[in-house]
Amino acid sequence: MPETSPNDGKGRLGPLGLEQILALLVRNGLLQEPDALSLRDKAPLQRRRLQRERQAAGTTDIPITWAELVASFQQPAVGSGRITETRIQQAVAEAAGLPYIAVDPLRVDPKLVSDTVSFAYARRNRILPLAVKDGRMTLAVDDPYSRDVIVTMTNRAGMPLDVVVSAASDIQQVLDEVFRFRASVRGAVAELGDGATDFGNLEQLVQLTAGTNVEGDDRHVVHAVDFLMRYALEQRASDLHIEPKRDSSHVRLRIDGVLHKVQELPKVVHRAVVSRIKTMARLDIAEKRRPQDGRIKLAHHDLEVELRISTLPTAFGEKVVTRFFDPQVLFQSLDQLGLFPTELEYFNSFIRRPNGLILVTGPTGSGKTTTLYSGLRAVASPTVNVCTIEDPIEMVVDAFNQTAVNTRLGLTFDSLLRTLLRQDPDVIMVGEVRDGETARNAIQAALTGHLVFATVHTNDAPSTIGRMIDLGAEPFMLASTLVGVVAQRLIRRVCMSCRQEGELSAEQATALGLQLAKDERFPVFEGVGCAKCRGTGLKGRIGVFEVMPVNEKLKKQITEGADAGEMARQAVRDGMLTLRQAAIKKLALGLTSFDEVLRVTADSDY
Ligand SMILES: [Zn+2]
Fold this sequence. Notes:
Helix content: 40-55%
Distance between the termini: 57 Å
Radius of gyration: 28 Å
Strand order of the largest sheet: 12-11-13-14-10-15-18
CATH architecture of the domain at 331-488 and 544-576: 3-Layer(aba) Sandwich
Oligomer: single chain
Strand content: 15-25%
Structural class: alpha/beta
Bound molecules: zinc ion
Shape: globular
CATH class of the domain at 331-488 and 544-576: Alpha Beta
């Protein structure tokens, strides 16, 4: 292995090469020398593979860096974890005596970036201006040894640079966001004028978008809205908020349950963007003082995504919220929901029954709809009539016959269920059981040969039975029809790009009700924050389940009126994992964090 300082042999410093990176990793104790040699030999083949991926994705203008290539092997690191781009860049920063910075997309100044560099140059050289302070510019680079780039950037900035090291993929992601979005917004501002009260142009724009020809002079607004919607989908956002403030407009996304501010729009663009969205949703553009709601269908990756639009007048103008019903999120195959193998087997046995009642429970936003849709889709076939009663219909599915509750028209869960039973259904889904009539009719339907899925609002599986009886279900009838109960929560996943191993402290173990032996280690993972997870350390969500099959012992307890605590103890004796136990199991697997386990199981009694 050669020297670790990048040296071209003539005493000049040159850019980081593969050999230097591997030598650095060996020196830092992350990689064994023989493994380094083997990675070096495999590098040319791997490079061709990555090139083919770039070609397929149409991103050949993004250079493949050596750090990316080495990280793509997913080589286990000595000690723990894998060799990731972040760990490589941390080693590079340390060797160069520079700070490593996890780029936070929310702290990036888009204007500084686009005023300082061109997209092509920044992309090719993997640089990102972060800040200007006291006559110095902070510049993030992935390779601090690229002297040419640093000299060029010093000249361009016209001031001294403070160089920091970041991961190339983080830099590329931020550049992409900054330049693609700003191009659309700049176009719109140039067209509409920068004045916040440019009504002449605004009225013109409103008329244009109201017409059929939306590809006209307002194409920048069309592009900006299109970009925003697609960007929200790519970020797996559930909601997109466009909120007018006094001088500008804030764009925020709800990702994995948390709001993130992603952009700020000039005020004049806000009105145009709102008009565009209202046009797409076929709302009344002229009506600005009353709330309106509508729907948009958007084609995305060969799938039709349903968007629900809601407008609300606020002090500074109309606020628009777009809610995304992404079929990829709503429809997951059963084995992707997050059930452990035993629980998955139970759930599959529930839905394969010809008749009976399956109850799914959990608070709003706990992923119940996804579980129900996935279960229904698994049983739907040309020979099976699947009917649903929902409030509202979250996703239109061809394979189901879906009906929406409409209390104004007298269409309640109960009345619709009675009507539905005359429609020769095989499988019925009742969106929510919240009154005695619906509870009794759901049980009746299960007794008369139907498979009934229903949701109830309770904290856990055992207390669902008490809730049904409180609503007016006959205990004996419930015991003879109930097949199983599933309680669930959505837990946020640790970001796989920046997770680092740690250990559960004694206090944390106690908080979770765990008793660790004196020298027992409980390894856990926490995300430190990177561009991919927007600095949160968490990315994506997965279900945590408490699956309670109703066996003979439980049936007896239900009939005898046992309380939830007794039934919970019986179910646990029979092998049920409680929500908290299931969440702790996910923690032990490195899928989620301690804080998340505590958060989602805060209201668990068992
Ligand atoms: Zn991350």
